[in-house]
Amino acid sequence: MQRKNHTAEGFSVPQSAHGELARSNAEYVLLPQLRPAIVMLLLFTVLTGLLYPLAMTGLAQLAFPVAANGSLLFKDGKVVGSALIGQAFTSDRYFQPRPSATSAPDPKDASKIIDSPYNAANSGGSNLGPLSKALHDRVAAAAIALRTSSGANSVPADAVTTSASGLDPDISPEFAMLQVGRIAKARHLPEDRVRQLVSSRVQQRALKIIGEPRVNVLGLNLALDDMPAS
Q1: So what's the pLDDT on residue 2?
Q2: How far apart are the C-alpha atoms of 81 and 167, rounded to whole Å?
Q3: Over the stretch 91-104, which tens digit does the pLDDT of each residue have?
Q4: CA distances from 6 to 12, 23, 124 (A)
Q5: Which strands sit side by side in the sheet containing 202-203, from one edge to the other?
């Protein structure tokens, strides 16, 4: 037999009707709240996930096309790097960047890590503290080697210390000038010409107060390659 419940007016209502009435009430309450929630979700998905990124990308391409595309540097029509990411230069014919503490898996044994300067796939510092003997010994050895090769009495800090990222694209003008003699000798160029090139590539502080004077190493080396031999 179907159970019946009595309402306040005395009419008997089957139990199944109560379930249908509850479902109807739930739909009546939930649907008006779900509809605007779904509409707002779709609206802001389109606005913030599609229209806003497209607008910002278009604006960046119009206002800052070089920076928006990664500040790429070219040689003979081919991309050779970015002005924002340093590269390792070891030849005496080129200006060398500051030391880098980036590393990479050993190709002979993936379980081991080896030094890999300017490895853009693994940005990071050495994590050595100011009391680290390893850091002290490395900096001291680099300073001695640089003083010996350049004949300078002192060396700038960026010449012997690594950056936090290990990918610093710039060096100080002092460090660049310290390398002029070596490069001029390797390329058989007058030191004055190389020194003038460095001076012409120095970027000053932004708004004269932000940052430090600096020289982009990759840009400087590209300009060095473009310098006539005589």
Answers
A1: 47
A2: 12
A3: 999 999 999 999 99
A4: 4, 20, 76
A5: 170-171, 214-216, 202-203
**DSSP H helical ranges for 104-187:** 133-150, 173-178, 180-187
For residue 20, give the amino acid letter: E
- Residue 81's H or E segment, with its range, is strand 78-82
CA 42 and chain centroid, separation:
32
- Output the pTM of the full model: 0.76
Q: C-alpha distances in angstroms, 119 versus 22, 36, 124, 138, 165?
A: 64, 50, 9, 19, 10
Hey, which residues does 5 pair with through a beta bridge?
Answer: 13
- Locate 15 and state its tokens: 């139990």
Please state whether beta strands 12-14 and 4-6 pair in parallel, antiparallel, or not at all (unpaired).
antiparallel
DSSP E strands, 83-218: 103-106, 109-115, 170-171, 202-203, 214-216
Instruction: Tell me how far apart the alpha carbons of residues 202 and 225 are, in angstroms, rounded to a whole number.
Output: 17
Highest mean predicted confidence (pLDDT) among 6-10, 19-23, 95-99, 110-114: 95-99
Share the mean pLDDT of the chain: 88
Residue 13 confidence (pLDDT) above 60: no
Contacts of 171 (CB under 8 A, 6+ apart): 95, 97, 98, 158, 159, 214, 215, 217
How far is the CA of 216 from the CAs of 80, 81, 150, 195, 198, in angstroms? 14, 12, 21, 15, 10
